[in-house]
Amino acid sequence: MRKLSPSRRRELKARSHALDPVVLIGGAGLSPAVLSEIDCALKSHELIKVRVPGAVRPERETLLAEICRQTGAQPVQHIGKILVLFRESPERSRDSGKNSVRRIRRGR
Questions:
Q1: What pLDDT does 89 receive?
Q2: Using CB atoms within 10 A of its CB, is residue 37 exposed (0-12), middle (13-18) or buried (19+)?
Q3: Greater confidence, 67 or 99?
Q4: Which domains does the chain carry?
Q5: Closest Cα partner for 42 from 70, 5, 2?
Q6: Most exposed residue of 11, 17, 29, 104, measured as fewest CB within 10 angstroms of its CB?
Q7: Contact, 60 vs 83, CB < 8 A?
Q8: What one-character-per-residue DSSP string does 19-83 give?
Q9: Which residues make Cβ contacts (< 8 Å) with residue 4, sequence separation at least 6?
Q10: Phi, psi dihedral angles at 77 (to 5 degrees)
C-alpha cells in the first residue's frame, strides 16, 4: 500500500474536521466485531474517525498501527483520543478518477 503524500494527508485532515467518530473502541479493546465495523465504515466512507476513550497515548498508537495493518487503511491523524483513517475504495477510484476526495470536498 502506498503512503499518503503530504499534500494528500493535508487534504484528508481538512476533510476530516467535519466528521464525527463512527466507531468507538470500548473496554474490550480491538475485538473482531470492532475490526469488522471499522472495515464496513471504511468501505462506505473511505475516511473515518475512531474514538479510543480508555487508552493512554502509547496504547492508542499501537491500536492505530494494528487497525491499519488488519484493514489495509492508512493513518491520517492521531489527535487526542481520535484516530483518523483512510482507505481508498477501488470502486470509487475507478469510477471518479484519482482526485475523488478533492472533488467531493470542493462540491464538484
A1: 82
A2: middle
A3: 67
A4: 6-106 (3.30.110.60)
A5: 70
A6: 17
A7: yes
A8: PPP-EE--TT-S-HHHHHHHHHHHHHHSEEEEE-TT--HHHHHHHHHHHHHHH--EEEEEETTEE
A9: 12, 74, 76, 86
A10: -160, 145
Angle subtended by helix axes 32-45 and 57-71, to nearest 10: 70
Instruction: Please check whether residue 60 is in contact with residue 50, taking contact to mean a CB–CB distance below 8 angstroms.
Output: no
H or E segment and range at residue 47:
strand 47-51
Confidence of residue 1 (pLDDT cuts 50, 70, 90): low
Cell digits of residue 101 = 476526495
Backbone angles phi, psi at 79, to 5 degrees: -130, 120
Burial level of 47, CB count in 10 A (0-12/13-18/19+)? buried
Q: Each residue of 22-70: pLDDT tens digit?
A: 999 998 889 999 999 999 999 999 999 999 998 899 999 999 999 999 9
* Nearest to 95, CA basis, from 46, 37, 49: 46
